[in-house]
Amino acid sequence: MRVIGGERGFSARLENIRSAGGALESLGGTVGDLVRATPPPPGVSSLLDSPVTWAKVEYACTAFFMRTRGLSDSITKLGTQALLAAAGYETADSAARAAQQIGSWAAGWGLGVAVRVTAPLWAVPAVIAALTAAGWIAVADGLVTLATGNSPEFGKKAMAAARGIFEQALANNTGAFSRVLDSGLSGFATGLFGLPPLPPIIDAMRAGPLTRSLARTGEASGAFPTEPPEVRSYKATPGGSPGSLSGLYEREVAAHSGRDNGRVRVDAVRGPDGKKRYIVYVPATTDWSVKGGRNTTDTATNVQTMAQRESAMRHVVRTAIKESGIGPDDEVMFVGYSQGGIVAASLAADPEFRKQANVRQVVTVGSPIGRFDVGNTKVLSIEQDRDVIPALDGTDNPDKRNWTTIIADSPPVDSPLGAHSSDAYTEVIRDLEKSRQPDVVQFSKDNRDFLGGTVEESREFEGVRKEK
C-alpha cells in the first residue's frame, strides 16, 4: 500500500519545516530585541561606591549579553537553515519529477521516430505476416471442425491470450502507464509525425489537452450532447446512518448498481450536534456507448467532465443540490465511484459551484481526478495498484495536506477491469477499516458529524436526455 498527500505527506512535512523555520527566525529576532531593550549595567558612580561589586556586576552583565546575543543568532540561523532545507527538498522533488517527464517524453519521441523511419521496411512484411497467421488459424479451425464437428475457435483464443498478456502488463505497471499516457504519448506523436519539439506542440499532445480536444470534437459532431437533460426526482427510503467509509461506499454503489441510468442520491443528515448536513452520492458509469443517448451516466459524461467542460451529470448534481434546499452555508460531503468521483471533484473545483454549496469533504473511489484543483476542500481518494482507470488522466493525485490518496494492494482479480469493479473496492475498503489504516481512522474522526448522524430525508435525481 502507498499513501500520497494528507497530514503525513511530503507537502505537509514541508509545511511543518517552513512553519518551524519561520517560528525560529521570529523567536531569534524577539530574543535579540529583548537584549537590545535591556537596561545598561551600572555606570561610573557605582564603580566609585563599590569597585568590587561593580566589577562583578559588569562581568555578569557582559557574559549575559554575549551569551544571549549568541543564542539569538543561533536560533535565527537555525530557522534560516530550516527554511533553506525546505526549499532544497522542494527543488529536488520538482527536479526529479521534471527529469521523469523529460525521460518519458524522450523515450516516446525516440520510439515515434523509429516507427516513422523504419515503417517502409516493416509495414508490408508485418501486414503479410498478420494475414498469413490469420490464414493459418482459419485453416486450423477448419481442419479441427471437419475432424470433430466442433470449432475450437483458435483465432478467438489467440486474441484472448494476447489481450490477457497486455492487460496483465498494464495492471502491473499502472504508474508507468500514467506517465506514458501523458509525456510519453506526447513524445511519440511528435516523433511519429516529424513535428518540431516546441513547447506548444508538446503541450497540445498531452493527456489533458487531448481530452479537451476530444470533447470539443464530440460536441461539434453531435456525438456528445450539450443540451441540459431533464431531471426527475424520486423520494427514497432514508435508511440508517452510514456509520463508516464502507457504509458510505455501499450507498454510493446502490446509486447505480443494476440500473441502466444512475441516480444522484441526496441524504439530509442530522448530526450529533443537531446541525443538518448533506451527503451527495454521485453514480458511476452505466452506459459505455460512445454516442450520447438517453442515459446520462455514459461515456459522453466521462469525456466532457474530465475535459473540465459542462456535462449532463454536472447539471443533474447542481439541480439535486438546488431542489434539496441546500444553501451556500450548508456543509456537503460528496461520495463518488469512478465517473461519480470525476463529477464530484470537477464540481468541488468549480468556483461558481462553491458559491452554491459548502463542499467540506469529497470521497472518490477509483476515479482519475488528479487534474482538478479543489482548493482547500478535503479529499480522500481510494485507488488500487492494479486499477488503470485512475491513471487515465495521465497524472498522479497531488501531494497536499488536504488531499489523501490511498493506493491499496488489489485483491486477486482476472484483469485491470476486474480491479476496477465495485466488488473489488468493497473488499479493499473493508480491509482498510479492519486494519485501522491511520488515514481512514482520521477520516472517520474528522467526519463523525456526517457518519454518526441520523438520515432524516433522502431523494434521488435522474437525468434523462431527450430522444433524437
Automatic annotation (TrEMBL):
SUPFAM superfamilies tied to this protein: alpha/beta-Hydrolases
Annotated region (Disordered), positions in chain: 218-243
Domain of life: Bacteria
Record-annotated GPI inositol-deacylase PGAP1-like alpha/beta domain positions: 298-369
A Gene Ontology molecular function term of the record: hydrolase activity, acting on ester bonds
Name this polypeptide is given: GPI inositol-deacylase PGAP1-like alpha/beta domain-containing protein
Organism the protein comes from: Brevibacterium ravenspurgense
Organism lineage string: Bacteria, Bacillati, Actinomycetota, Actinomycetes, Micrococcales
